[in-house]
Design a protein that fits this description.
305 residues, alpha+beta, four-stranded antiparallel sheet, 13 helices, 13% strand
Length: 305
């Protein structure tokens, strides 16, 4: 167990002087800028991103402190070998799936939560608790764009995940959480289960987004974190169809002409790397998909030209 009672030992492990850490903490409100990330529905997600100096400190905190904190086995995001596929595979072939979303997840992780659960008094001096908490928080909540925030979110919900996971296990219900997405599968009363989870998550200071609650039964397409789980793991057909269409036009007209025809601005290499990322995503779920294995080889050849 890592214990930081003295400031010098903390500074040594983080690789920053006390002066540097306090310089960052004393000017924390000036060290973030807002970025807007487009969402699939046409709306935008606003993130607060730290400047390079603060980001380097946060990366060190994440690597040298937070990475050593245990997280629940039910948490599938922000961990070694964690993925959407890992989250989805637990729910393959189950008769009923309940999906619940935690409303404004990161916005509800507050400074007091971070200080109490992430940097507890039994492991840190009060001076170090305050310093580290300030370095990880902006406007009294955890900013989604900070390198420390993913690990903090798993630590904050560790007890909740274990509590809910064990309750579900005793009733033969599968449970996983991927960031703010909770998934349950098996045979159960969805209303009863939802009420139980709502009560438990509210104890932690969070709330369920009722608009995003989904119950899926046999006969419906069941997707978990974007992956179809009816009989086996598979990427949605429309996602693969879009890639096939792009590959068809790139083969027929050439990559540059395809980009020009679709008014795609940017470098050919950047476009192909994005395409390769999409193909690799399909293959991370459908590892033996021969068509997409061929697509991957083809795009790599285009990148090498």
């Amino acid at each position: 167990m890592i214990v930081y009672r003295e400031l010098p030992s903390l500074c040594k492990d983080l690789g920053f002087s006390a002066r540097a850490l306090y310089a960052a903490s004393n000017t924390i409100n000036k060290r973030y800028h807002k970025v807007r990330i487009p969402k699939a529905d046409g709306d935008y997600r606003e993130l607060y991103v730290p400047d390079d100096f603060l980001k380097s400190i946060q990366r060190s905190i994440a690597k040298n402190i937070l990475a050593y904190e245990p997280i629940s086995p039910y948490a599938c995001a922000y961990r070694i070998n964690g993925s959407t596929a890992l989250n989805a595979c637990t729910h393959v072939g189950e008769p009923t799936i309940l999906k619940l979303d935690i409303r404004k997840f990161f916005d509800h992780i507050t400074y007091p939560m971070v200080k109490e659960k992430v940097f507890p008094a039994e492991k840190y001096s009060e001076q170090n608790r305050i310093l580290l908490s300030i370095l990880c928080v902006y406007l009294q909540t955890v900013p989604q764009g900070a390198p420390t925030s993913p690990a903090i979110s798993n630590i904050i919900l560790r007890e909740f995940d274990d509590r809910v996971g064990e309750w579900c296990k005793a009733r033969n219900i599968n449970y996983t959480r991927y960031c703010d997405d909770m998934t349950f599968s098996g045979s159960f009363d969805a209303k009863e289960l939802k009420q139980f989870v709502e009560n438990e998550i509210q104890k932690e200071g969070f709330f369920i987004n009722a608009k995003k609650t989904v119950v899926l039964h046999d006969g419906q397409r069941k997707a978990v974190t974007g992956i179809v789980v009816n009989e086996k793991l598979s990427v949605p057909a429309e996602y693969k169809k879009d890639i096939r269409q792009i590959m068809y036009y790139c083969n027929k007209y050439g990559v540059i002409d395809h980009m020009m025809a679709n008014k795609i601005i940017g470098y050919k290499s950047d476009y192909l790397n994005v395409l390769l990322g999409k193909i690799n995503y399909v293959l991370s779920v459908e590892k033996s998909n021969k068509q997409f294995i061929e697509y991957r080889s083809q795009v790599k050849k285009w990148l090498a030209e």
